[in-house]
Amino acid sequence: MRGMTAQFPVARPRRLRRTAPLRRMVAGTRLHPAELILPLFVKEGIAEPNPVSSMPGVLQHTRDSLRKAAHEAAEAGVGGLILFGIPAHKDARGSAADDPDGIVQVALADLAAEVGDALVLIADTCLDEYTDHGHCGLLTASGEVDNDATLERYAAAAVAQARAGAQVIAPSGMMDGQVAAIRAALDGDGFAEIPILAYSAKFASGYYGPFREAAECAPQFGDRNAYQQDPAGPIRESLREVELDLAEGADAVMVKPALAYLDVLRQIRDLVDVPVAAYQVSGEYAMVEAAAANGWIDRERVIMESLIAIRRAGADLILTYWATEIARRLA
Length: 331
Ligand code: PBG
Fold this sequence. Notes:
Elements lengths: L3 E2 L2 E2 L10 H7 L9 E8 L6 E2 L7 E3 L1 H14 L3 E7 L16 H13 L4 E6 L21 H18 L3 E4 L6 H11 L8 E6 L6 H6 L20 H13 L4 E5 L5 H10 L4 E4 L2 H12 L5 H15 L3 E3 L3 H8 L1
Parallel strand pairs: 3-5, 3-6, 3-12, 6-7, 7-8, 9-10, 10-11, 11-12
Antiparallel strand pairs: 1-2, 4-5
Helix pairs in contact: 2-3, 2-11, 3-4, 4-5, 7-8
The structure holds ligand PBG.
Ligand PBG binds next to α6.
């Protein structure tokens, strides 16, 4: 028989799987704490941190508990954190987004003073957490998101975040031209050195459900289908978004969600030379936690397997709510 000497197989892939040291030596896909980015939520006007019921283990932080969480992440060796704010007051234009006294700005200043040298402080730049209607931009009279009017708001928010101490700006609203608008505003305000991590391939996803509880940003009417990408859309649409963002000055790009879009991630990784991030979003987190709480899956094993899959598909950076836990486990 071919592939056999006498009755023995010539090739035995199992030889390299036999012991743990062998498997570790040939593994090839490795995670490092420095590649992990922890999303954190800070809420204005609360005395105690609020648990997010759909994301067991995740909190809406006070300014104090946020600092503690950031210190823990830094001590574990996590590479960076990305901050989302929930203001006490929302309005149609999302005024708190660029208010120097807005919750994200004051929290960024706290973090810059305490952990700014230990990990990278990333600000998510969008309007949905700040608008009373919950959309990612300003609305026209007929209730559509007004792309170009929104760009000015993003630019102002990004500058306010940079002034407060943000070290990377991450625009997540999927408006056309958002990277160019933010780049110009940062450069014009003396922040030419601040990189932009663009949410380039961001899909209109059911996996964001728990985040909308955590960030209190569910749209009050309609959905985000007219600005986020269609899950059934062609991959080349994501590649085009990436190319446009790079042409507009993005320094790194992101795919979001992660696990359901690993094919998109791989194609982007093969296309570009900049770092590619993947966001393991709230729904991905919640599904694992819920199944594990029921005893249906092995929590630690599935978390690690999902992160390895994202890494193997090509992510250089992974945003994950498990960042601190995983960093500790990797140590
Ligand atoms: C928008 C934003 C969202 C997430 C990150 N930035 C929500 C949305 O687009 O509706 C989702 C993150 C997650 O689900 O973990 N500012």
